[in-house]
Amino acid sequence: MESRTFILKHVLPVSRVERYWKGLEEGKIYGTRCKSCGASFYPPQADCSFCYSSDVEWVEVGGEGVVECFTRIQRPPQGFEFAGSGYTITVARFGEFKVMGWFKGEGLPKVGMRVKAETGRDESGVWKVYFVPT
Ligand SMILES: [Zn+2]
Question: Whole domain around residue 88: which residue ranges?
Fold first, then answer.
């Protein structure tokens, strides 16, 4: 079958959540919490989508997380060819935050498995969150 490459680029305004990206470079993962209604956001949001307040605080996500779900990507899409035979995207709960990351353990994670989060660059140079079983 003949195919052709279709490249789609997005421009995302990141200036108000720049701390998140800087945090990844420092090995830290941040979410935000609305100071008005208490809602928590990961990925962090500069504005609360519940009460529309812009009075949010940065909160470092830490400690042990608990795996809630995961999915195995068997055929990496364009731009993720470095992942070779596939990768596992995992969602783990760290207190009030649900964080998505790449699983770095052996085989597949299990729901309820305890993990710690770390940051690092992937083979294409993009900063990511990784989960390692504890
Ligand atoms: Zn709010």
Answer: 63-134
Residues 34 and 92 in one domain: no
Contacts 24+ apart (CB under 8 A), 71-80: 72/108, 78/5, 79/124, 80/124
pLDDT in tens, 122-134: 988 999 999 999 9
Centre of ligand 1 to C-alpha 27, Å, is 27
| 71 and 61 Cβ atoms separated by less than 8 Å | no
Say how many Å lie between the CA of residue 56 and the centre of ligand 1: 8
Q: Residue 96 sits in a domain of what CATH number?
A: 2.40.50
Tell me the CA–centroid distance for residue 60 and ligand 1, in Å.
Answer: 18
State the pairing for strand pair 97-103/127-133: parallel
Residue 119 Cα to ligand 1 midpoint, Å, equals: 28
How many Å lie between the centroid of ligand 1 and the Cα of residue 33? 8
Q: What is the pTM of this model?
A: 0.85
